[in-house]
Design goal:
The chain is mostly beta strands. The chain has 2 domains: 34 residues, no CATH class; 89 residues, CD59. Helix content is 3%, strand content 56%. The strands form 3 sheets. Strands 5, 6, 7, 8, 9, 10 and 11 form a 7-stranded antiparallel sheet that branches. It has a two-stranded antiparallel ribbon with strand order 1-2. A hairpin with a 2-residue loop joins strand 8 and strand 9. The relative contact order is 0.17.
Length: 127
């Protein structure tokens, strides 16, 4: 979000990653960056028994966006997980969907606090 002050009342506009606060001194205004970020686990491909295979690190996103885990199933068994920042166009929060292969399907789960998409997160285990 940006907070802007000029000759009009305070106006708030939505933007992707940061918040700007404004300091007004003697009729001049200055923008001061104030981050509002969420940190999530990032793993491009995780095997439940072997752990993260590729892309193990963290990512940051606007605090208004969620962390996400996409669980890929083979029949009823968890086959792979993908962890990351934000909701993606192809995967919506709390969505369950079949894939092109009839035995595989996925579930996308989202959460709203730092590192909430870790494998030990109670928020994700209860979903």
């Amino acid at each position: 979000m940006f907070a802007l002050v000029g000759r009009t009342p305070l106006a708030v506009y939505t933007v992707r990653v940061i918040t700007l606060s404004v300091l007004v001194l003697q009729g001049k205004w200055f923008e001061i960056p104030v981050p509002e970020l969420r940190t999530c686990h990032l793993c491009l491909l995780e095997d439940p028994s072997a752990g993260c295979i590729s892309g193990s690190e963290k990512c940051t996103i606007s605090s208004s966006s969620p962390c996400m885990v996409i669980t890929i199933y083979y029949n009823t068994r968890v086959r792979f997980l993908i962890r990351g920042c934000g909701q993606h166009n192809s995967y919506r929060c709390q969505e369950k969907r079949n894939t092109y292969f009839s035995e595989y399907w996925y579930q996308a789960q989202c959460c709203q606090y730092d590192y909430c998409n870790s494998w030990s997160s109670p928020q994700l285990q209860s979903s």
